[in-house]
Amino acid sequence: MPLVAGFAEIDITPPIGVWMGGYALRPSGCTGVHDPLYARAAVFESAGKAVAIVSMVLIGLDMDIVVAVRIEVQKETGISPHALMLNASHTHGGPLTKSFLCMGSRDPAYIRWLMDRLIEVVKRAAEQPTYQSLAYGRAPVQVGVNRRQYGKNGKPVKIGVNPDGPVMPWVDALVIREGGNHPSAVLFSHACHPTTLGGENLEITADYCGYPSDFIKKKTGGTVFPLFLQGCSGNINPHPRGDFGWAKAHGRALGEAALDAIKHALPLNSEQIDFAKTTVDLELEPPPPLEEFERSAIDCDREAEDARSKGDVGRRMHAEGLRDYALFECEAAALGDEGYFQSAFVI
Description:
single chain
């Protein structure tokens, strides 16, 4: 059966004052909005199967949000919870939507509103399907550099610039063509931390991730619907970084590469879609000695008290978060190695 697909976007910009995610030591919630944040959805259906992909300019989502959104989307659209992928850009300039120690707390009112918006954008995309075909393209681009800098002993010593480290020097593009001819949408993926702006920034921003979509819309006269999907960006930082000018430059480079990938995309089989889930088990290192966490908890308590006496909100939250983490590690270590590794996935 032929493929049908629908697309929609929705504004998810938070109100001023919410805590931001990505960096510790921020002294307050956000103080302004530099550029809006969006969620964009693509819904594909063929032969009775439907798959939804949502691109969100957010740091990430806690699992309680993911589960709730998937359940409600199924009620509204019939799309299986396992067939809905929620991909966060991981911007460090957005609201705190994933619980990180040391960074404040989620805003309950914004989270409820956000969940409604994510459900709504999938619903809108599912309600406007048109016949489409698929193509795939790849183009060279690199906006980041590996940040794991090593010392003489070969051990990682700090976050810095490692030009020899692994990066993702391309953009992958899934091109959706209306009627098999003109591109109507593109899902493009690249791996690089959205950390062009540092922790001193208190304005809501998509970082570099918002600019390529704007660029694609402008260059195509709004005829191509763009969805940016973040790849495995763990140890890749933008380079150079430090201001909005570089964020825009990185975004433009990525947008140009995505358009190049569209031009050279090759057709795919568009009559059958499916979804699957794979779990990858990673080997964990043994935990440090219990005494190390006990000392850390005491030191962090002292740091928190000093910051509290000086009215330093960011430093106090940072110290309290590290103390809570150290206490968690103490409890987990008391369970032995097996119990420790099981508990490590709970925090």
